[in-house]
Amino acid sequence: MGFVKLLPLLTTVVMVLGLPRKEELNYRLPDIYRPADYQVHLNLTADVFTESFSGYTGTVAINFTVTEDTREVKLHASKDDLQIQMVSISGIYLDVLDYNIENVTNILTINYPIGLVAGRYDVLSIQFSGNLSYDEDGFYKSTYKTDSGETRYLATTQFETASARRAFPCFDEPAFKATFDIYITYPVGYTAISNTPGTIVDSESASETIQFETTPVMSTYLLAFVISDFTAAKAVADDEVVHQLWSRNNTSNNRAWGLEMGQKMLAALNRFTGFNYSNVMKKMDQGAIPDFAAGAMENWGLVLYREGALLWNEDSSSNTEKQNVATTIAHEFSHQWFGDLVTMRWWSETFLNEGFATYCEFNVAHEVLPDYKLDEQFLVYVVHSVLLLDSYESEQALESEASTPEEVGQKFGVVSYNKGASIIRMVEHIMGTDNFRAGVHTYIENSKFDNAVPDDLWSALNQHVDNSLSDLPDELPVVMENWTVKSGLPLVHVSRSYSEITITQERLLLSGNDTSRKWYVPISYTTSEDEDKFTNTLPSGWLTPDSDLTITVPETASWVILNNKQTGYYRVNYDDDLWDSIAAGLLKEDFDGITELNRAQIVDDIFNLAMAEKN
Ligand code: BES
Ligand code: ZN
User: How does it sit in the membrane (predicted)?
Assistant: First the structure.
């Protein structure tokens, strides 16, 4: 389990230890500001790259408008990391008494008696100084040792979810998308990289200034910059996207796999989404950071990793690590579309980012590395692990309220990642893969450079449903609603009387009962008589919140198994005779045609049903 999925645990520990409850505070900015472009200039002297000093200076100029008249600007600035030196709005300098940072929410409130007028653009300029942090979050300092034992320093960033405000004042919520022009001044001998390509625009004897090209319209949490003495391996892909893999020089032998997989995964994702990365970005940098809190982070055009998640060496690393590098790259690169180009509106919808990325981590990576059977590994590592967690009554829904930093942290758990990915895979098989991919393309086209909510996804997919294949009981947004807003999963009951199979549902809970919560459940099945066993994952019928389902199988069928390849997000329990017939089938040669994935389903379901005392 990655660091990110441990975040909920950490935040729970903090809450139990009884730190002050912050629920009363409003962490959100009023939705009336519309930043359009930021000019950010950060200035780092040579002292920053030593042990003793971590200060820097900066300016930010934000061209913004408001949707209604107001005398106040509210944005974010970290009180602990930044000192504000001067504030002006469209050339008018403000008194220090006119601005203040709230120290818990880090909301910087600026009073502007002249007032802002709806629709008019003003420029908010702030001069500030800051300190690099040491906690692997925000704009922070990392270190490593050279082969000769000398300590080297680098300055790097980790902004998700709410730490761009630790580097410079900004509207630090995912829906405040804008373009960014970033300038960094740093000592000669170092290299600065950011989301877009840069050009040196000023050179002095001891320092130089780099100007990065204007970014696409994007969220603050996806900005990144690294100022280091790293070196890079480079490759130019067929579509002319320049790939570079940056790491400390003494790891230069470990870059080849990450560089190769980077190009291949990006190409596979271009095919999967039908939207080329090169439409928006010219380059893709990957960086291996010696001190990195998460496993990896999907900053647009500058993906950062902990070293072990990107660097790999044939002689000294394992095959598990090799796979992990490939799938981590697939995950982070898929965010370039699902997260960076199309961003969830707020963290309550984190599954739109992390669920899609986890889906692609296996299912798109599978196209690059078919021998690894990542599509099959998905069932065991992604689906089964979350089916277990989601059987606890306390588990949260895919989409749920999150306001405080603790609640936002809770959204980066197994539900957003694994249930998100499992539900997306379920929809793929409800629609059929080709229609699903067409729908994903529509979703991206409709929401690119913008924010999305789950309904945007389901509606886009709905346009590509072919009801002669899917036989949907209602429109897709209706079918998907309970899967999205309610926690938990169905336990589907199957009983047989001759050729008639009766199918019902209840909520699966490890302890307790809940007969009120129901879903639209796609049912596929295979019998011992079928020629083509377990391959058709399209639904042959539906349970709905109001109706059970009856199907007819040949009387000669010795067994029937529901949920081909376990593409539906549910478990299945059978009456005793059916369980006996399945057991008899499994004992036959070649498991009587019951394929691997459905054998894995049966084993995992049985243990879990036993735990829940359902059989
Ligand atoms: N976006 C996350 C990283 C993140 C999330 C950082 C929340 C800080 C706060 C990234 O895409 C991610 O999910 N990383 C995983 C690895 C991935 C391969 C599953 C991680 O870091 O564990
Ligand atoms: Zn992710």
Answer: Lipid-anchor; GPI-anchor
